[in-house]
Amino acid sequence: MTIRLEMTVILVLALTPAAFVSGPAAAATVGADLCKIASPAAVSRALHATIVRAEPPEGSGAGCEYSAKGTPVNSATNHAIAMANGMGGPPMDPQSAKIVSGFFNGVLGDASARQEKQARHPGETPVLVFSVSSGNAQEQMKLNRDAMGHLGKVTTVPGLGDDAIETSGSTLMVRKGDKFIQFLYTQCNCASQDVIPLAKQIVAAL
Fold this sequence. Notes:
By secondary structure, the protein is α+β, with helices and mostly antiparallel strands. It has 6 helices and 7 strands, in the order ααββααβαββββα.
């Protein structure tokens, strides 16, 4: 399948969502409610999901985490199918969708069960998380561009911040001045083209 490599990257990101190079939270955004930039209703429309919760990410980082009802394995499966359907070819047929579902259930089943038990809010899955850090933003972009380039295709996204890349159909990384902004959406029923307009709105407000 043409998305086999991208699916592998989704698995890596779904299991280790904090595996990016980032700096300390941006001083101007620490303590700010960045979830106000994009309302749950706006995110629901963009991601084809019903957002039931919007809150700061766990830890001390600045940003926002948007969650919908669901399990990690089902959400990751839906994202892989949405990503495949957004690649310009014909929609994924039911047999291929069944294969993808079986693949994710086989690989992520046990890990998904563990994640559910340890979940911040059981029965909910973060479908979009963005974080903002400051300092060495250009270096962070270079390091992440190089690192993600070893895993798959890295695409420059025009008109988003001062520099932006998309990779694996699941990640956006953006530099705006000295701020480095990451968007992770490995578990949404969406593709990058759904997230980019929303990311532009969020980045413009930072």
